[in-house]
Amino acid sequence: MMDMSQVIVMSSHETIRVLEVEVDAAVPSPGTHVKTEAGAEEGRGKVLDPEVVTQDRQTPSSTIPTVSNEAAAPSVQNVAIPISLSLPHPQTSMPITIQACPQVLTQDGLATLMTGMIAQQSTLSQPLLIPLNMAGSVGGQNGLALLTLPATTLATLPGFGAGGPTGGLIKLPFAGLQAATVLNSVQPQLQAPTQALLQPQTAAVQSVQQTQAAPASPAAVASVMHKVPEPSASVAALQTTGLTINPAIISPASLGSQPQFISSLTTTPIITNTNVTGLTSQIITNAQGQMIGTLPLLVNPASLIGVSSTHSPPTQGLQVQTVTPQLLLNSQGQIIATIGNNPGAAPFTTSTSSTVLTKSTLSHSKVNTQAPIVAVNQSPVMIAPQPSTGKSTSSSIPVACAEMPTVSQLVNKPQSGVTEEEGINLEEIREFAKNFKIRRLSLGLTQTQVGQALTATEGPAYSQSAICRFEKLDITPKSAQKLKPVLERWLAEAELWNQKGQQNLMEFVGGEPSKKRKRRTSFTPQAIEVLNSYFEKNALPTGQEITEISKELNYDREVVRVWFCNRRQTLKNTSKINVFQVQ
Amino acid sequence: MMDMSQVIVMSSHETIRVLEVEVDAAVPSPGTHVKTEAGAEEGRGKVLDPEVVTQDRQTPSSTIPTVSNEAAAPSVQNVAIPISLSLPHPQTSMPITIQACPQVLTQDGLATLMTGMIAQQSTLSQPLLIPLNMAGSVGGQNGLALLTLPATTLATLPGFGAGGPTGGLIKLPFAGLQAATVLNSVQPQLQAPTQALLQPQTAAVQSVQQTQAAPASPAAVASVMHKVPEPSASVAALQTTGLTINPAIISPASLGSQPQFISSLTTTPIITNTNVTGLTSQIITNAQGQMIGTLPLLVNPASLIGVSSTHSPPTQGLQVQTVTPQLLLNSQGQIIATIGNNPGAAPFTTSTSSTVLTKSTLSHSKVNTQAPIVAVNQSPVMIAPQPSTGKSTSSSIPVACAEMPTVSQLVNKPQSGVTEEEGINLEEIREFAKNFKIRRLSLGLTQTQVGQALTATEGPAYSQSAICRFEKLDITPKSAQKLKPVLERWLAEAELWNQKGQQNLMEFVGGEPSKKRKRRTSFTPQAIEVLNSYFEKNALPTGQEITEISKELNYDREVVRVWFCNRRQTLKNTSKINVFQVQ
DNA sequence: AGCATAAATAATAA
DNA sequence: TTATTATTTATGCT
Do B200 and A196 touch (CB under 8 A)? Predict the structure, then answer.
């Protein structure tokens, strides 16, 4: 593996120093537990009895046993990351080196940083995904080096037009949370060129905090930063060169009062080389998984291939892709940061969302009182900074609105800035909806589960359909605006539980644990014969009829119902196929 | 758990020194898991009639008692991230080195850094997607600056215990592909936003490459930037400090010769500020989605909260969380990078995979000839590096093996290191399977589509079932080992196409050369074209019209009717799409 | 090695 | 909101 080490450099003057950090993943752990679960899957499933079907619902948890903190959590990992300065060395497994240069930031450039990570993980069974969009990211390629994304890259996707930056999403899974950074750039050879891009402005970059702090700065960004004495989350300000924190993002965190971390930070960039598999940089996120900052990653030497092994001449031909990330999510699917998003729509930054989690959450989780939390208003910030890269708004669709336009219709409106409607930030909603889905999927939750859980905690009106429509934005802005905070809060809580372990999430959601997929029923030939005879007479039996049939055949009623559904489907497909063939 | 150490800081002037950070996650608690299982949700349940409740059937399932294990266990991870400056230390595995630049940090702030993570993973049963845990993240808040992660932060989340880090996963979606970096740091003010970020230090950071390549230059970081004349994507070279490129990763890119970006890069870190929503850093990935390098992110000032606003004294207590990401995916779900993966299993790094894409790909995509491509051999690198963190393996499930154990059974075996079986790296396969699913989903592809496409290009034997079983690892190691490279190559190509646009992806998937496309229930492109033309003329055809259209297209009348219904419904969405594209 | 189709999930029609 | 359909995933069989 790699080694990395070395690193580098700095320049200027001085020192550098550097360090090395080492991280190890090593791992500790004895314990590791891994869950296997092997077979599980099916296994338990059976439990359910037919009869009982109902299930009840969960009681309110009681369960929570334990939990103590982390404890519960399933997977644990230990990570050690020692960092040493000034020394180089080799390390074992994932060493990361970071260098900071003072000047750098300022002057030069900066720093960098890095990180290493370790992830962990867990079980989760389910899937998650984390899509980020990067949509806006880029504007075309522009300029500079850095972050430009080539339009083309994005362009290719249907959604994104060529020029446009669009973005795709990038997902980063992490075990814990962390941040990920995205970027793209390509680099051919690395030599001087880059510098140019980067450097110049030393001053230029400042951290948000600063900005905020000092209003004066045009930067405008005033971010807010104050610590909030809140319970859970702590936040840090970073000033890294490379790192930035998005206030907006933070907010969510505040919601729940989650504990997160945060701190002040400075910035020097560090570069690390993680070697490990490819790790590169990390993102710092708060408990919510929201990104607080990011660390730069280094490239893994080892990995480099073509490159010369050694120090060959500087550049090689690397290719980089452009990225246009949109969201950074943690493994839980929680969004950590938005990367190249559309200007207007910062995913989480909802302005509205409340910060408090629901009761249930609180009860369980431990709140950290100490950590300061910051409430952020994101939206404003997010949006402001970058004008849009051009991305938004130009759509052409004519929305045919009747009387109640849906959010999607409004959002898609052609002209530019249609981001506001009725005082509602449509872009924000759109982003949220997108992120919501991603996060939901990351948690491995179905629309149905979300709907049921919300119905249980928030009262009725949260059917699977409702969730589906929200995700599709097939609802009016007003409805969306109303639903958004509820969904946001609930999801954040679900994510917290999930972090403690899937089991916990399941308890939270439904109460029930894992329900396993029902075992596939095997119908006897006789039964099939009977079912088909009924189907021929009536492909769509009434509930009563289904019940009767199920009794007759002694199969579960649901099984019979599904049989009919599938049978109808099959018939339709069959016919359709024929059609196709014809064509 | 946690504590971490302090770290950092620096202040002003100079040096730094730094830190150690430790994070620990400590914790492991025993698991708690509770699974409940309650009943099933209600779901559809309602259905049941009073009458019939009965049920019957259930077949004996198997109950696999086994289960235990891990299941319960959540895995815990501990992460320690000590950072010391100047010192070497102890650490185990993943060392990270950081350099700081004196001044910079100093002054401001500094830097900080980071963390490392490792991720791991779990059992997953299934699908998973990318979970990362972060478990470890942090320890509490501690000290210093840098990277420490406060435990609390994490703790708050349900998952995380107070002390324990648990981990959630983080996912990062990006649109295109790209890389993401994660990191955290905070920055104080931003001013010149972007620029600042970027510029500075040139020297300081160096890229890995350089490191590798030219050791001599200290500055090293010369970044390169040149644009590439390529068509679509632009590439920039980075030299950022923060940026690094991973050769290995790159290779994939080469495959398809995608247009992406690329360029040489050097290393200086660049910081970009993406303004947009919160973007922070980016990762550079190759076409394959593998991470090539990363760019540092900046923190958004706004977000910072508690932290002092300005540059307060150098260090603050930053807290950093540890991250343990696993994969970086783009929005498409393409994996961009692996972050803290398990040692053994680097998602993508398959050793076997070939770099060349298939023909089809070539034809379509524009190849960038110019861009240098690197062929990398990934696997070796990936895997090798880290021994395992310990993660894996402890499961307890007794695998009941008959004669042909499946990969999942083997992987879940209790004892530790059961990563190898028959010379096959099970962990690697497990990781790949997990990532494959994620990437597939990110591309929006179904198992069926993958199976069909593979059948078309690779010959028979790639049914939906096969894909499903591969993902579930319900196959023998031998079979998995055989299938893996094929899937890997195909997916990489699909991702390349996707980068060019969804349309392209669809063509790739479905259309291709030989393929048969028959298919899935959908309408043929021709039929859709005709339907759309009718739709444009009249979105709400009469029954008569529907009948006529259905005859013309030779589709079932109902199918046509439904198509119109759906098309109307979807108009909104569609429009949305356009909007995006436009953007 | 896979087909056929049961079961599950998302999206729509009522 | 609920009922159904449309799609997708998973699995029994053999």
Answer: no
